[in-house]
């Protein structure tokens, strides 16, 4: 609903310019575009393969922790208090290490995120540059993503009212 309102407001602002020109609006289907770029498909495959290898590695670590815990439960009655505490700490520390590994691989700033940035960002920039060139060449004022129209990909510089709003607020 917000995106639709934004689109309507932008269209109304564009239509009400002093020059009484109409705004040309276009949209692009980013999923379709990206799936047509071979480098993107290759990058996605590489990322999925790497993620799967890391998931398997982490799963093995959790299996080891489970094995350690089962062994601990089996031997617990035979262990001294000191040995019990030592084994519990060993299991807890192993669990912390695996969670830390998981975060370093899959977290918001993890290796997978960085690898995705290095592989996909150049492709996205290439696509954006093509969209921007087409928009300028064909004199579009705005280009949005489809089907939701939620993301503004391109806006003509003369359609930006930010400076005018700031200037009028200061009055």
TrEMBL record:
<feature type="coiled-coil region">
    <location>
        <begin position="30"/>
        <end position="104"/>
    </location>
</feature>
<keyword id="KW-0732">Signal</keyword>
<dbReference type="InterPro" id="IPR005632">
    <property type="entry name" value="Chaperone_Skp"/>
</dbReference>
<dbReference type="InterPro" id="IPR024930">
    <property type="entry name" value="Skp_dom_sf"/>
</dbReference>
<feature type="signal peptide">
    <location>
        <begin position="1"/>
        <end position="20"/>
    </location>
</feature>
<dbReference type="Pfam" id="PF03938">
    <property type="entry name" value="OmpH"/>
</dbReference>
<comment type="similarity">
    <text>Belongs to the Skp family.</text>
</comment>
<dbReference type="GO" id="GO:0005829">
    <property type="term" value="C:cytosol"/>
</dbReference>
<protein>
    <submittedName>
        <fullName>OmpH family outer membrane protein</fullName>
    </submittedName>
</protein>
<keyword id="KW-0175">Coiled coil</keyword>
<dbReference type="GO" id="GO:0051082">
    <property type="term" value="F:unfolded protein binding"/>
</dbReference>
<dbReference type="GO" id="GO:0050821">
    <property type="term" value="P:protein stabilization"/>
</dbReference>
């Amino acid at each position: 609903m917000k995106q639709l309102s934004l689109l309507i407001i932008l269209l109304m602002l564009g239509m009400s310019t002093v020059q009484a020109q109409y705004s040309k609006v276009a949209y692009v289907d980013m999923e379709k575009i990206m799936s047509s770029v071979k480098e993107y498909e290759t990058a996605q495959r590489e990322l999925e393969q790497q993620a799967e290898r890391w998931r398997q590695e982490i799963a093995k670590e959790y299996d080891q922790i489970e094995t350690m815990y089962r062994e601990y439960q089996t031997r617990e009655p035979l262990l001294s208090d000191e040995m019990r505490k030592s084994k519990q700490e060993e299991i807890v520390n192993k669990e912390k290490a695996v969670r830390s590994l998981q975060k370093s691989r899959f977290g918001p700033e993890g290796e997978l995120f960085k690898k995705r940035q290095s592989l996909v960002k150049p492709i996205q920039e290439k696509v954006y540059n093509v969209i921007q060139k087409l928009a300028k060449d064909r004199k579009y004022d705005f280009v949005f993503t489809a089907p939701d129209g939620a993301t503004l990909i391109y806006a003509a510089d003369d359609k930006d009212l930010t400076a005018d709003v700031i200037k009028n607020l200061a009055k």
